[in-house]
Write a structure and sequence with these properties.
This protein is of the alpha/beta class. It has a single domain, classed as Oxidized Rhodanese, domain 1. It is built from five helices and four strands. It has helices at about 15-20, 25-30, 35-40, 55-60, 75-80; strands spanning about 5-10, 45-50, 70, 85-90. A four-stranded parallel beta sheet has the order 1-4-2-3, with no helix packed on it. Helix 4 links the parallel strand 2 (about 45-50) and strand 3 (about 70). The longest helix is centred in the middle third of the chain and has 7 residues, at about 35-40. The chain is globular.
Length: about 90
């Protein structure tokens, strides 16, 4: 797995609520399917971030083991604490 500055975005949020209206960022984001994530879940260079709303996160019985929940609306407040040399997986479903 290539960990040098690889950022994987698995965001299934409505494009209009997170990305610009043209969807450019979403089109450029690398993707990782669930099977690839399962294989890499325990890898020390992978950080999994749950960006669901607090209510969706709280009421969901489905959570990825080891994932950290962050508020997607406060991206500026938390993105810098994650090392840039890790694979960052953001998910919301």
């Amino acid at each position: 797995m290539n960990t040098a500055l690889k950022v994987v975005l698995l965001i299934l949020l409505a494009i209009g609520s997170v990305f610009p209206a043209d969807g450019l960022m979403a089109a450029e984001a690398p993707r990782m399917d669930k099977d690839e994530l399962k294989v890499n879940l325990d890898h020390p260079d992978v950080a999994v971030i749950d960006v669901r709303s607090y209510t969706d996160w709280l009421l969901s019985g489905d959570k990825i083991r080891g994932a950290v929940r962050e508020n997607y609306r406060d991206f500026e407040g938390w993105y810098a604490k994650y090392p840039k040399d890790k694979t960052i997986v953001l998910y919301c479903a």
